[in-house]
Amino acid sequence: MSLPSALRAVHERFGQVELVLATLADLDQVVSALCADYARRGADDELARDLCPYFGVIWPAARGLAREVARRAPELAGRRVIELGCGLALPSLVAAKAGARVLATDLHPDVPAFLALNLAHNGLTEAEVAYRELDWRAGALGPEFDWVLASDVLYEAAHPPDVARALAAHVAPAGHILLADPGRAYLQACLDELGVLGFRHTLAVERVADPALDRAGDRQTREVFVSDL
Predict the structure, then answer these.
(1) Residue 174 burial by Cβ neighbours in a 10 Å radius (0-12, 13-18, 19+)
(2) Rounded CA gap, 148 and 82, in Å?
(3) 167, 140 contact by CB (below 8 A)
(4) What does the pLDDT look like over 57-111, one tens digit per residue?
(5) How do residues 127-163 score in pLDDT, each as one tens digit?
(6) Helical residues (DSSP H) of the chain, grouped into ranges
(7) Exposure string (b/e) for 53-69, b if CB count within 10 Å is 16 or more?
(8) DSSP assigned state of 218
(9) What is the side-by-side strand order in the sheet with 202-209?
């Protein structure tokens, strides 16, 4: 898939890691245009939801997760890491900078083009951050990863059991899951599902920048809940 022409560069810093990411310049404009196109063509509503490019900006939960990944950098060096529903793959890039071997996964067809561009922007290669299309609702790659990462993947009522199963299905014995969420209503249900599957968790709260709230340059922030399981 080709990249939209209207992109902007966002500079991010997490610990010692500095990144530049290409993002959509105006998410609302792109989503509105896509929805109008689907309406004209009578496209299926579920398809429209799946293909809306909400991944094309950096969300607070991704920042919170990336911050935790940077904090845990010594533990990630040389480890196998997978990010589920990676979007712009910010946590994956931070993990790669820490020396992890990363597999970023998503379902949206535009994600690989953004990832390739952002790897080039940050001096990384596909050998350091590989990509694979994955619908975690339909299957898993197996419990072969030392760290499983996911951020803001609990946005529908049906998600908690599916997300819990997907996270559990990819983590190796004695591995870790890092799940970041902006405080959506479904987080606790997912943690409960993971508890049933035998996982224990600790919860940390991060305050991170949220440009969606920052309309006057006043550095608005949002709480992000990061669970380590």
Answers:
(1) exposed
(2) 5
(3) no
(4) 999 999 999 999 999 999 999 999 999 999 999 999 999 999 999 999 999 999 9
(5) 999 999 999 888 889 999 999 999 999 989 999 999 9
(6) 27-41, 45-51, 60-71, 73-76, 90-97, 111-121, 159-170, 187-196
(7) bbbbbbbbbbbbbbbbb
(8) S
(9) 129-133, 101-106, 80-84, 145-151, 171-181, 221-228, 202-209
